[in-house]
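Holo prediction. Input below; ligand is pyridoxal-5'-phosphate.
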Amino acid sequence: MTTEINVERGLFDEVMVPCYNPMEFIPVKGQGSRVWDQQGNEYIDFAGGIAVSCLGHCHPAMVKALTEQGNKLWHLSNVMTNEPALRLAKKLTEISFAEKVFFSNSGAEANEAALKLARRYAADEFGPEKSEIIAFKQGFHGRTFFTVTVGGQAAYSDGFGPKPGDITHLEYNNVEALRSHISDRTCAVMIEPLQGEGGIVSPTPEFIQTVRELCDKHNALLIFDEVQTGNGRTGHFFAYQGLGITPDILSTAKSLGGGFPIGAMLTTTKLAEHFKPGTHGSTYGGNPLACAVAEAVVDIISQPETLAGVLEREALFRAGLEKINAKYNLFSEVRGKGLLIGAALNEEWQGRARDILVAAGKQGLMILMAGANVVRMTPSLVIEKEEIEEGLARLDKAIASLV
Ligand SMILES: *Cc1c(COP(=O)(O)O)cnc(C)c1O
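Structure of the complex:
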């Protein structure tokens, strides 16, 4: 079968499972924070592939790592270990609290490993009744059945039959709700140190401190889901490093591979011992290609200049968004940290985040939403300052087209 295939948006509806509703244009090429579609139209990328393309598109260091490794060795399975995986794991332990690393291929799988480890640890150390997982409303942890059930939006987990059990959802930033609910039956608390999909919501200092204290008091493990906040996104390598507390287990993915699929679960030696050979695993997890690319990403992101640059860029975004808001009065607040930015729409603009996203696309700007009422931006951490200005100018035009 070598018939010519007409690749256009309509083909999506013909051959793809309709669980997405992609934009009309089809990007074919990217360089830094610019992308071009099939017609040669140019876009500035404030979406960053949903907090993934942290070094932009086709960064030379990533291309080099990918092509060098691609000419050497792609895959082994975990029947053998490999050099890139060992180097990457070593670097991740040097950068963080962690002493041990488990590699997966996505954020959901990193969380799946984290939750299974917490359950196994509690069962081994305290007995089978210590199984409750506490998580938070509007939280997002992935789409496997366990992680989507731990996530705080029933709409995503309903309708698939019996759910994994003993999961409780509390209100984010509600200290009293957590204090009155948590008990010695609690196995783990899973939390995003800044809710991403749920609308870019930061924890209050009091709340996040209390989460740690109450976990300690009840021998519950604290799992930080840093799939979106990790790898420099907030201006720290991991967001926990800016919050003054340390989790017991941390999951990450998205920016870790800069666009190449990889996830990781990080933990201590003491906890890791509860996963023995055969307890958990992955065919692809930690494969040489993914790890070689991620190592190149980590080498750049972990540099103090890169992290400082994130905060400089955040300031430019905030100043630009304020200017736009002074003109059109559509945001009630600009939330988030570093380059995980959410502009919340005010009363008058409720439900119009997708309209803005589509209008931005027409002006040559790629942005995201986080729910129907928040315009989200998660660009490359090294986006050029002129690109930020040009992108914001296009956002201004997009909004002008809607008023
Ligand atoms: C994106 C995301 C996930 C899921 O990651 P996948 O790679 O899509 O499985 C999990 N948790 C958080 C906080 C995320 O933002």
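The longest strand covers residues 331-337. That is the main takeaway for now.
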